Structures are given as structure tokens and as C-alpha cells.
Amino acid sequence: MSESIIPESELEEVELYHAKSWWTEKVFTQDAKLIAIQYGLTAFAIGFVALVLSWFMRIQIAFPELSIISEGTYYQFITMHGMIMVVYLLTALFLGAFGNYLIPLMVGARDMVFPYLNMVSYWTYLVAVLVLFVSFFTPGGPTGAGWTLYPPQAILGGTPGQESGIILMLVSLCIFIVGFTMGGLNYVITILQARTRGMTLMRMPLTVWGIFTATVLALFAFPALFVSAVMMLFDKILLTSFFMPALVEFGENLTYGGGSPILFQHLFWFFGHPEVYIVALPAFGIVSDLISIHARKNIFGFRMMVWAIVGIGALSFIVWAHHMYVSGMNPYFGFFFATTTLIIAVPTALKVYNWILTLWRGNINLTIPMLFCLGFIVTFLNGGLTGLFLGNVIVDVPLSDTYFVVAHFHMVMGIAPVLVILGAIYHWYPLITGKMLHDGMGRFHFWVTFVGSYLIYFPMHYLGFIGVPRRYYEMGQTEALYTSSAADLNVFITLAALAVGFAQLVFIFNVFWSAKKGIVAEKNPWNATSLEWQTPEQPPIHGNFGKELPVVYRWAYDYSVPGAEDDYIPQDVPNEDVSLADGYSELGVEKT
Amino acid sequence: MSIFSLLSQKPWMPDQAAIDNTHIGRSSSHPLPRIALYVLMAVIGVLFSLFSVAYIGRMAYGDWRILPEPTLLWFNTGVIMLSSFAFARATVNAKENDLKRTREYLLLAGVLTLGFITGQLFVWRELVSFGYFVSTNPSYAFFYLLTALHILHLLGGLIAWFVVTYKSFVPQREASNFALSVNLCAIYWHFLLIVWTLLFVMLLLT
């Protein structure tokens, strides 16, 4: 066994910021944990708006005779639902909320390295959200250009929200990116420079690896969105023709001419595909940790998991044009992107195998976080496999404008990461609040969400196969084109969606109810090894770790170690302090 | 340590644990602000690279017209080079703890930067007087866009310059921190000089 003696700290501790008033302590706080909660609450609030929009859309599709919303409103809701969910909810939650809460605690730091910048990052994000939200109330309403905001139609008359909605959307995205860059700098540098003694990069939990790599991706991918947003703003406001070709609108020649809509698509998807992994990589990391903890077993193929995270991150920058097959491209170009898409599936599949092999012969506790993790694996596998269909040009072209894409996208990028987020909340809620979430409500929430999601999205694959087009606000007189089951399925899907929506209300109730009346969580209730659970107080207070920072002696996956009395050894426990099981002289060595 | 040797570590093995236990916990000996600046410059570099890619991509279309670069741009380029040089001198003097000369060079660098920005605005005025508006042609639009973005980054830098220059008027308790701040400003200015030079070359060649 290795020596556990470690050198004295060579680094001086940075003086911690202490708030001087209630405002700077609770509102304009510089504590990463509170900033994380601010990010989380804001993201959930705007995410709930997007969820409600989806209910309206589903009711419209299932019961068009009700005319609950007009076609213009339908497109506005589609656009806002998509953009909010992808950028303002998922990205902000994984990086802003989980990143802020978990990075300092998991690497053994007192806070982020630039707390003031961290605070500004959140308030900038809030401004971005508000600017976007305001567009609901401006003349013409929010943009209805579709979440990809493709020009030329995004800024032309006839597209809902072209008066001011599109401008507010683009401005909001630019603000979001500026805010994220401030936060991203913090996450990356905290992970690189503020780890506690003994915490090598390869001893970090995979959650931190996932957030770290996703942040690097975001820092380099978001500029592409910024560039496309700024250029489109120029086209809209200053009448330049970066993306706008010569156009006739309502019989009149517009002043635009010569621009390239395809150029926008390249820029947008150069951001857009890494964005998939900006969301997925933290989810991969979190699910790896949760599975390991709740199956009481070290993660299978740890190094391979890190390699896969880094490899996926790198590859994610060379697959973007598989979103553009229907735009028309050189066949060799399409061949290249189809090939890279297949290649990126390899490290992704490795991760799935490793999760399953971690479960294999593990002591699986079917806790609520574990249920969500199992739900994630199956869902991600399903969504990933349909991604292989769509990644190939010849299959994508006929399916691209159908519900098959909606089904694929929501399985892999919607439901899968959301299941991880929910599992992560059930897992870390005791740390954040000191209370346990109500188990019964939690299990109801899981089963309705999981089964309901499949009832929503499995039938959509079928709708796609029979050619039902996406983006239509009603099917109209299409009996000659599709079987009548398409309309029946739409009703069925809508009912399932409303049921899943109701389950989320139960979850929200549970979060607030349990914070007041939940069972007090015992210290480290899941018997986890990572540092966030080893703080003197639970929930951790400002500064995280008492007088002395912890010292790390092992990786984050010492579960069921032969010779140890307990089935876990926290990262900050040296070998000589580990209680040995009967019959062992030291860890891994039986008495002779 | 290379990324490959890092990623080949087996943190669960006892012999690796013995090595890991002696790790001080950070990956680089550089001070935090310096690393932050490097990361920020990388992000800004990506931003300008993507604009350049868009520029080259848009050039391929038939309506592209060549922008006649005003001669004033050469003068402005000289001014920003001098500004960068002044920052370099300020860094040397800050390291030698010569507060007075550091202050003088910082003030000179700031004035030259403001001169560059003013010069760029005069270039805009000149182009407008020729009838080259932002919506006239994509090449002009790119010119206005890229120069505006570059000016915005300089204005951001001027905030840091203002703080550092202000510090140069009061005796510093931590001379090394002050020298670092001056040095970081200089690095940022050199970086923006390189960005401008590359943009200028691109504009001249196209």
C-alpha cells in the first residue's frame, strides 16, 4: 500500500470574500453555492415557461378544431420552446448550476477563483433571460423563426416576431454568451488551479471531467453563435447582406442581395453540434458518478471514460454539417460528415458499455437517483441509435422534415439529459438543503416521467416513418397521405405529454415541500466518497471546508474495496485511517 | 506533463497513489490572472477567426467588391504598434519598480490607444464620405463590423488600463502584483495588435 504522507501545502490560501450586508450575502452573492442556486432557479423558471409552451403546442396538434393557438403563435412557441430548453435551461443548469455548486466542493476549493466575476456571470445570464422573456410582450411577439433562426425567413416579413422578437432573441443570445464566458473562465481555471492537495486531474470525479470538457467546448463553440447572431443583427437592423440573398417580398424587390443563408447554417451548427455535447458531457459525468455510488462499485473503465469525454469533445467540432444534409452539399462533403458522425458514436458507445458493466454484479440500490440513471441509459441508447440513422445522408434526407427527427432529438437531447438532471437533484438535494426529497412523490415522478416520455416519443418515430411532417400546426385534410392512426396518435401523445407535465408539477411541489417538511438528511446519506459530502457542515457553509482544506489520498471510486470494513472510503481518508474488515491485515491483503 | 501521460495514469493503483499524494493540487505555476487572460485571449482569438472564416466564405459570392483601404489605416497601425511598445516599456519599468517611468509609459500607451480608436473613427468617416456605407456591400459591412469589434475589445482593455494607471499614482504595497497587472495589460495589447495586424493583412489582400 502506498504511503499517505503528503507534503505541507505549498500554496497560500486565497482570502475568502465575506459579505458585508444582507444584499451582498443573499442577493448579489459571490458564494458559488448560492450562485448555483440562483442559476438553477432562474433556469427552472424560464424552463417551466418553455414546458407550458409545449403543452399549448401539443393541445393544438391533437385538437386542431379547438384552435387554441394560431399558426403564427405555434411557430413562436416552437421557437421559444426550443431555444429556451437548449440554451437557457440545459446549458445554464449543467454549467451554471451544477458547475457552480459542484466544482469547488468536488475539487476541494473554498470557492471559485474569481467570485466577483462569477456573480456578474449570473446577473448577465439573468439579463439575457429577461431580454428573451420581454419579447413575449413586444409588438409582434417573440420570433417564430424556429429555434435554428435560419435566414432569410427569420428576418423577413411574414415570419412572426420579425418586428422586434428576432432582435431581442439575437441580443439575448449575445448577452448570454458574454455571461457564460465569464462563468466558463471561472470553471476552467478553478478546476485547473484551485484543486486541493492530492487532487490530481485523474483523481477528479467524472462529473468534474464532464463539466470541465463541456466548458472548454462552450468557450470555443459559443463564439460561432455570437458571430452568426451579430451578423444577422446587422442584416436585420443595418440592412447588410451577410446572409440575405436577393429577395422579392410581396411583389417588391428588397434591398438585400448576394448573401448566403448557408453561411449562417455553417456558423450556427459549428456551435450547434458541440452544444449537444455541452449538455451531454456533464450528463455523462454525473450519471457515471451516480451509477458508481448507487451500485456501490467503482466505475468500470475509468480511464476509458475520461478518454471518451475528451475524445467526444474533440470530435464534436467536426460533425456539424450532418445537420445540413437537406441544405444540399457536395456528396464527398456529406460522406465526410457521415463518417465523422459514425466515429463519434464509438466513444459514446464505450461509455454506455462501461455504465452497464459498472452495474454488472454491482450492489444496485434502486434509489430514485439510480432509477433516473437507468432511465437515462436506456433513453440515451434509443436516442443515440436513431442518431445513427439520421447521421447518414441517404436516410436523413427523407426523414429530416418528419417527426422522426423530433423523436430522436427529444430522446437524446431532451429526455436523456433531463433524466440526469432530475436524478442529480434527487442525489444532491440532501447536500444542498439538508433534507431528503419525499420518496413516494419521487418514485411517482420518476415512473410517470420515464414511462410517459416513452409514450410521447416512441409513437413519434412511427409518425416520422409514415411521413408526418414536423413544424405543421395542424395536419389538415391529410387522410389521403397518412393513415387515420396518425391523428389518433397525436391525441394519445398529447395526453401522455400532459401527464408528464403534471408529474413535473408534483416534482416542483416536492422540492419546495421537502425543503420545509422533508426528513432531515443524515450526513452523507448515500455513503459517497467524493469531497462534497465530506464537509464539516451539511449543507456546506461559506468557505466549504472548515479551517483546513481537505487532503486527497485516493480517487473518487473506492467502493467495496476488499479489506475495508465499510463499502466506501472517502477521498480524504488516508489508508492508515481505514477500518479494516475481519481477516484483513491491510487493504486488499488477507491475513495469512 | 503531456496530456497523454496524464490520461494514462491509473489513479487506483497504489504506486500511482504514492505519486498523486504528493501533488500540490494545481496544474500550472502561472498566477491565476495570467491563466485567465490566456483563456480569454484564446476565446477572443476563436471569435475573430470565425469572423475571418465568414469573411472568406462570403467573399466567394459574386457581389463582393474590393474595399479601397484608406491610407489612414497605415498610420493607425503605426499608432497601435507604438501603443503596444509603450506597454512593453511600462512592463520593464514596473519590474524594475520604477513607478514614475511606468506611469509615464502607461499614460503614453493609453493616449496612443485613444489615438488609434479616434483614427479608426476617422477612417469610418472617410469611407462614409465616399458613399461606402455599411449596407453598400458585404466587404464594407465586414470592414465596419471587424473594426468595431476590435475597438470594443480595446475599450474593454482600457478599463483595465485605467485601473492599472490609477494604481501607478499611489504607492503599491505589493510591487509584484502591480508589475503583473502591467504585464498582463501589455500582453493583451500585444494580442490585440496581432489581431489587428492579421485583420489588416486580410483586408489588404482581399
Protein architecture, described:
The complex is a heterodimer of chains A (592) and B (206). Chain A has 14 helices and 4 strands. Chain A has 592 residues and is mostly helical. Among the domains of chain A are: 24-204, Cytochrome C Oxidase, Chain A (Up-down Bundle); 522-592, no CATH class. The longest helix of chain A has 37 residues, at 71-107. Chain A is globular and about 90 Å long. By secondary structure, chain B is an all-alpha fold. Chain B has helices at residues 3-7, 14-20, 32-59, 72-95, 99-129, 138-168, 175-205. In chain B, helix 5 runs antiparallel to helix 6 (138-168). Chain B starts with a helix and ends with a helix. The interface between A and B is large, with 64 and 44 residues.
Give a short synopsis of this structure.
The complex is a heterodimer of chains A (592) and B (206). Among the domains of chain A are: 24-204, Cytochrome c oxidase-like, subunit I domain (Cytochrome C Oxidase, Chain A, Up-down Bundle); 522-592, no CATH class.
